[in-house]
Amino acid sequence: MFGFHVTIPGFSNCFQFRAEALILIAISPIAYHEGVSAFVLLVSYLSAVTLVKVFVKQSIDLGYPFPNTITAMHMLAVCIVTLIFERPSMDEALKVLPISVLNGLSLLTNNSAFLYGGVAFVSMIAANVPFMTFSLELLKGKRSLNFASAFSVGLVCAGSVCCVQGEVNVSLAAFVLATVSALLRAARGVWQHELVSVSLSPLRLVFWNGFWSGCITLVMMAASKEGLEGLRSLRTVSTNAQIGLLSSIVAAVCLNITQWYAMKAVGALMASIIGNLNLILVIALSIAWLHEQVTPWQFLGVLLLATGTFANKMLPACLSAQKGKEAKEPASEKKQ
């Protein structure tokens, strides 16, 4: 993780803070309420999310422009690694298939949205996945409507939108496609949590998710111009591109495993909220590597993201403790 300077136009002061410190503070209540192991798991998950993006981008920039082939190799590696530790159960194969289909459709609609709208606009819609996850869980009766959860989800969504605020290229087609993509991601998260909650071994589910995702990717490869060209180019691509590709495979394996375990540990809503914290690392990387400046909107977004994530765990606990204290006081007065 990277530290960075923040210079806000119109302000005389230069703010310096570290992205890793903000993220660790934001998810610190996890260590208290869920345990240190869950905290370490979420840190690993966030790191893997960021590293996959960095290494895939590096591989493409260094002369290996085959995203479908890269994804297929990621899924193959996930299957091989999970097979080393756990033998998959055939009974769970079809249970995981809908999750993989939802994931594939989400990626397809999200990528299609970029054909009609700008990156900032599509990202703003995608930033509201926690709100959609929250709404789906309400509809399914998995949680009750309360101020603490609604307030923290609102902060996270507002912060995410601020982080990607920029020139917005709006169109109805982009809005519909991006909204459908976000809904599919939210539905996948809720469904995934329900499945992993009753499974004794998430590793078996990781295998089947990798298997079905790999199959879907192979179909996409065959239907696109990419075909087998990515595999043929492996021998001729530069060494640096090969290193980036190998690094992305390692990061992808870590990501797929930690994502399922994180979902089981903290639930669909908290997992989607923590996933949005990745925007803080993206901003940090853009400054450290691309020497970009943080805008006032992004600075505000980072603070809202961290505050909302922190509040999602701490606020309900504080309100519950306050209610418990108030309930004890009348009881003690009666005894007197």
Automatic annotation (TrEMBL):
Q: Where is the EamA domain?
A: 175-310
How this chain sits in the membrane, per its record, is: Multi-pass membrane protein
Subcellular location(s): the record lists: Membrane
Q: What Pfam families does UniProt report for this protein, alphabetically?
A: EamA
The lineage's top-level taxon is Eukaryota
**Bilayer-spanning residue ranges:** 68-85, 113-133, 145-166, 203-223, 243-262, 269-291, 297-315
User: InterPro entries this protein is in?
Assistant: EamA_dom (IPR000620), EmrE-like (IPR037185), TPT_transporter (IPR050186)
Q: Which UniProt keywords apply?
A: Membrane, Transmembrane, Transmembrane helix
Question: What name appears for this protein in its UniProt entry?
Answer: EamA domain-containing protein
Q: Give the organism, scientific name.
A: Durusdinium trenchii
